[in-house]
Amino acid sequence: MKNIKLKKILLIDDNITIHEDFYKILRLNANDILNPIVNEAEENLFGLTISPEKKEKISYLIDSTCQGEEALVMVRDALHNDEPYALAFVDIRMPSGWDGIITIKKIWEVDPDIQIVVCSAYSDYSWEEISILLHHSDNFLILKKPFEVIEVRQLASVLTRKWELQKRD
Fold first, then answer.
1. Where are the alpha helices (DSSP H) in the chain?
2. Are 143 and 152 in contact (CB under 8 A)?
3. What pTM was estimated for this model as a whole?
4. Sign of CA dihedral 101, 16, 60, 71
5. How far apart are the C-alpha atoms of 54 and 88, rounded to whole Å?
6. In what order do the strands lie in the sheet with 87-91?
7. Tens-place pLDDT, residues 61-97
8. Residue 92: which residues within 8 A CB-CB, separation 6 or more?
9. Quick one: CA dihedral 117, 121, 126, 132, positive or negative?
10. Nearest-angstrom CA–CA distance, 51 and 39
């Protein structure tokens, strides 16, 4: 493996099981990190051609919290340390404390560039309602629970890349 690109993602959900699911889906396989020399040796020895996509696997630095208030502190600290989050997956329903809408509004007051995926198992709000409440329509997408692995991976890949490209401008 030639390059490992680390992008920061924040998970905000009151359900710890959801955190575990995201970690399983988004973490790069430990063998890919620990054995890049072995992987390259196998490629040379067996004449395999490893695709550029696999050589340039994306890995994420993942932080998580169960509450919006703590998420805001984490976003603020990340910005202060010049290590901002590219993406946050935010549960819409969090019984104690801020709900997802309030959390997103507060986060965008601190970091308007962060990409957001609104996660919900329920139809609390339509896309139109969320768009009106958040006053943004180009920095968030909706992911319905239960989600598919490929959906999470695609959203993480595309939205962190979008964030990265916007930072270059």
1. 16-26, 30-34, 36-46, 52-55, 68-80, 100-110, 127-134, 149-168
2. yes
3. 0.80
4. positive
5. 24
6. 58-65, 5-12, 87-91, 115-120, 140-144
7. 999 999 999 999 999 999 999 999 999 999 998 878 8
8. 99, 100, 101, 118, 119, 120, 122, 124, 125
9. negative
10. 12
| Burial label, 40 (beta-carbon count in 10 A; 0-12, 13-18, 19+) | middle
Cα–Cα distances (Å) from 135 to 72, 99, 104, 146, 156, in that order, read 18, 17, 11, 26, 22
Number of Cβ within 10 Å of residue 74's Cβ equals: 19
SS3 16: helix
In which residue are the tokens 């979008």 written? Answer: 162
Cα–chain-centroid distance for residue 31?
Answer: 22
33: which 2 tokens? 């990190």
Q: Give the strand pairing for 58-65 and 87-91.
A: unpaired
What pLDDT does residue 56 have? 47
SS3 147: coil
